[in-house]
Specification:
- By secondary structure, the protein is mainly β.
- The protein folds into two domains: 117 residues, Elongation Factor Tu (Ef-tu), domain 3 (Beta Barrel); 84 residues, no CATH class.
- The strands form six sheets. A six-stranded mixed sheet has the order 1-7-17-20-5-2, with no helix packed on it. A four-stranded antiparallel sheet has the order 8-16-12-13, with no helix packed on it. The protein has a three-stranded antiparallel sheet with strand order 6-19-18.
- A hairpin with a 2-residue loop joins β18 and β19.
- The N and C termini lie close together (8 Å).
- The mean pLDDT is 95.
Amino acid sequence: MSFHEVRFPTRLSVGSTGGPERRTEIVTLANGHEQRNAAWAHSRRRYDAGMGLSSLDDLHEVLAFFEARMGPLHGFRWKDWIDWKSCAPSAAPAPTDQTLGVGDGAAVSFQLTKSYASDAQTYVRPIRKPVAGTVRVAVDGIERTDVSVDPTTGVVTFASPPAPGALVTAGFEFDVPVRFDTERIEISLTAMEAGEIPSIPVVEVRV
């Protein structure tokens, strides 16, 4: 799969709708009980950045972005304005936000992840597209600077392995890898200097 490491213009995605979806297989038994099975280990996000009345320059920027990606052929980055940090939207990322793993004295690479907890249940989401320059990493609560981060995979690599039993944590901003979920964009010219694109659907891709 081809992926372009470029983000959809954030000022134009403000006000978009969307969020995660799950695929669950549900079988209703003869006695009325259900058997449910999760078909996907990870949720998949969908968004729609349909633009209301906007300037022709904004519409042209979206058109250029769509053409440069060749429609749904190439993936790109998307900022989810509800879920784009390792912490709450109102907070600043801290190096102790998310647990990445525990050192064993040999491993030097750890995948960025974000945990979603409710009561006793927790879902751990791999983060593949961190925003460059935003990742902060700590070992046992002490921030480390001898760390490199691959912004295209979300893998954190230490210059030397964390000690056995040491807790590895991180804080960061991140994007969602997506592609256009349409072969065409319909633009409506409503005035000499303004128009609209009612729907710009995008869908998360696995990378």
